[in-house]
């Protein structure tokens, strides 16, 4: 935007072939990256920690008689974890 304004103010304009080639020089498409064993292990550990957290939250809310439903905390946690897991498994 500022380059175009500078060209307008100075009266200099870039040549047509240079302007057309200024942004895209090359496009390359790589194949799907193979699955990583380390990432899969981290997903399993993450899900185990989420299950532990959900159990702890459910216990704490009932034990201390808090006026909140535990599902307000558990459902968003599980939903986001499920979204992350699905993005990893369904990636193209």
Question: How would you characterize this protein structure?
Answer:
The protein is elongated, with a radius of gyration of 26 Å. The protein contains 4 helices and no strands. It has one domain. By secondary structure, the chain is an all-alpha fold. The model has no long low-confidence stretch (mean pLDDT 85). The relative contact order is 0.08. Helix 3 packs antiparallel against helix 4. The longest helix is centred in the middle third of the chain and has 27 residues.
> How can the largest sheet be summarized?
none
| Number of distinct beta strands | 0
Q: In which range does the helix fraction lie?
A: 55-70%
Strand content: under 5%
Topology as H/E string? Answer: HHHH
Shape: elongated
Oligomer: single chain
Number of helices: 4
Distance between the termini: 35 Å
Quick check: average pLDDT?
A: 85
Tally of distinct domains: 1
Supply the helix-strand structural class. Answer: mainly alpha
Radius of gyration: 26 Å
Uncertain ranges = none
Keywords:
mainly alpha, 92 residues, 4 helices, 0% strand, 65% helix
Strand-helix topology:
Elements: H1 2-10, H2 16-20, H3 37-63, H4 71-89
Helix pairs in contact: 3-4
What's this model, at a glance?
With 92 residues, this protein is an all-alpha fold. The protein has helices at residues 2-10, 16-20, 37-63, 71-89.
């Amino acid at each position: 935007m500022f380059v175009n304004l500078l060209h307008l103010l100075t009266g200099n304009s870039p040549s047509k072939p240079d302007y057309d080639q200024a942004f895209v020089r090359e496009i390359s498409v790589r194949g799907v990256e193979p699955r990583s064993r380390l990432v899969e292990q981290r997903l399993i550990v993450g899900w185990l920690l989420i299950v532990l957290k959900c159990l702890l939250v459910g216990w704490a809310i009932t034990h201390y008689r808090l006026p909140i439903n535990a599902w307000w905390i558990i459902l968003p946690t599980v939903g986001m974890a499920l979204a992350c897991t699905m993005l990893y498994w369904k990636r193209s």
